[in-house]
Records
---
Amino acid sequence: MYGKETCEEVIWDLIEGTVELEGETKKNITQARQDIREGKYYTLEEVKRELGLWFTFMFYQ
């Protein structure tokens, strides 16, 4: 490990270059990144509110 990298970060660094993603997966990742750049996403707070879970989680934060 280098510096303050976690074990998980080191593992991901090692496998990142060796794992070949299929075409459909690559397209989905590209689309998801574009959606995020365009602000097309929901925050955790929005999802909790939409599902009616906001009140439950207020007591556990």
---
Amino acid sequence: MKKNILSIPVSYICFLVLTLGLTACEKEVIPPNNNTEEPDSPSDPPKQEEEKYEPEVSTDDYEIVYDTQDGKKAIGYRVFTAEGMLKWLYATSVEDPNTPETDGPNKNLGLELMKDINMPDQTIVEDTKKRSFRFAAPVSYDKYGYPTNSNWKMQWNFSGTIEGNGYNISGFRMFNDGGGGLVASLDSAGVVRNLTICDAKVRAFWGVGFIAGTSNGLIENCHVREDCKLAILTNNEYEGGIVGKNYGTIIGCTNAYHYLHGKINHYKGGIAGLNDGTIIGCINYGTIKGHYRIGGITGNNTGSVIACGNTAEVSGVAYAGGIVGFNEASTDVVGSWTAYIYNSGQPYNEQTGFGRNDNSSHCEAIFVGNSMDINEKIPEMNAALKVYNWEWVIAENPEVDYPTLRQIKE
């Protein structure tokens, strides 16, 4: 009787397969898969941890300065080019390089100029990949030549130090629907010094100055050239060559910009539109024309004006003065002078340099006259300035030139 193949033991069949050289004999037992997730596709790349952003410490455009105690903490930027300036602007207005993951600015990061910086006449846009701004389309202008967009990003409540090292920033353009300047507002801890502004054009609505819109800090040895332009739109207030509104200290600064545009503005001054702090050792060379409370040094003074001079014409509709437009009660104006220049504004006292002066203010050694007159009054002014450590120096050609200033180092 023929034997049924189905009755042959499996182990015997395996023996035959191995004997004949076959490669498999038993079926692989696969345990049940309780994982309901679909397996990764073999074409998907392996997952990698996101690389932490590390800023470039040094390039041809800038260097990051680190704290000497904490070598990983950035405290400022040394800037060599306009592109390097964009890196500092980004860090102080958008993202702190110390903590990029928080996506917030560091208003304490210092800036040190290592060369003259000329900003291109191009707007700036954010470049998130490079953690910076970049230059884009050309800046546009209105029919009067004032910018309608910007190649700059202002810092509000800036509390760091801007060290100009005697270099220039030229070509900066700013349009803002609020206040404006190189910094919008300077904190009480903020410092801007040893810097010259050239060929700047600023267009804003209130509180405007080429260095700061509003200052609670220190501005020292900063200068504004004649080729700058500044405009306040609509009938608004507080316009100054250095600062729109000063609540801090301004030392040894000069303005040569001429305020000639015809908007109806109030509180305009060659150094500050409004002064509620201290202005010391400053000279205005720029013509100032406005309407109400217009001054060669400040339009409205509720603080101190010490050792200041004005060589230019000042005119307004009411309260225009060669030194101070409207000098309020309990103020100090000492050792200062203004050129004897006809002023069309009324009321105006050409003999004192004030549009209006409160009788309770302290005014000492104030003179109005031509260059010869002012140079002759230097001994009297310097006697009053002795406690302030400033003195006037007679001009080499007193028949033509007005005196210059010198700070007495202790």
---
Amino acid sequence: MIERFKSLFAHWNRRLKRQLAGERYHPELHYMRGPGPKTKAKTASGKSVRGA
């Protein structure tokens, strides 16, 4: 019974710390938003992007 209480308390404590610290991971900052410079260079020179 005491172990269960300790586990719940630890979970609540972690959750509270996360809420107080704010959301630190912003996935939109890590995902590509479009073609990169290599793709732009290929299309500018007339080569196929897909290789077909």
